[in-house]
Amino acid sequence: MCLQDFERGDPPLPLPSIDPQDHATFMRLALNEAHESPPKPSNFRVGAVLVDGDTGSILARGYTLELEGNTHAEQCCLIKFAQAHGVAEERVGDVLPPNAVIYTTMEPCNLRLSGNLPCVDRIVRTKTRDGKAGIKKVYLGVKEPEKFVGENTGRSKLEQHGIECIHVPGLEESILHVATAGHEEE
Ligand code: HJL
Ligand code: ZN
């Protein structure tokens, strides 16, 4: 199977593996997800892919407002993977592989204007008490623009919790273009 087949529509089962070091490809898949998100003036259109960092298997994909309610891309990935394994999102760490990583076109949020739980907290709580499972790394395409919440401290909070954050360069312009579609012209 080639990547192009995979980009169209829902993934066939079993999900294909990509070289776990091919960060650019995973970020392209996350951007592909972001394209699915409906434009809305009050948030960004973001895409995310949850991956087993050891094998390159894709565990879940998500985009802003994919699931019911005011849902974020990273949140959708976690909820979908949790649902597929019959656990609540709060317990998703129990079913994640030991080296789970997430690719997101935009730095995970640390404050939501709606008051919903930020994605940083959702990611941090995936860590199991023994430290064996949970999301270990976050690959991000761009820093969050200072449009809605000023400076986003998501990256530093993740790092404080021992979750490495890695910028994947190369797609910034497209990511921001997709993210801000539907925003008022300044
Ligand atoms: C990330 C998303 C998404 C944002 N950031 N990483 N993934 N929509 O899926 C961040 C932005 C918040 C606003 C509005 N966007 O979303 O700061 O309404 O969307 O809670 O703060 O807050 P709500
Ligand atoms: Zn978020």
TrEMBL record:
A matching Pfam family: Inv-AAD
UniProt-listed InterPro entries: CMP_dCMP_dom, Cytidine_deaminase-like
CMP/dCMP-type deaminase domain ranges (all copies): 21-151
MF-aspect GO terms: diaminohydroxyphosphoribosylaminopyrimidine deaminase activity
Highest taxon of the lineage: Eukaryota
GO biological process: nucleobase-containing compound metabolic process
Protein name: Cytidine deaminase-like protein
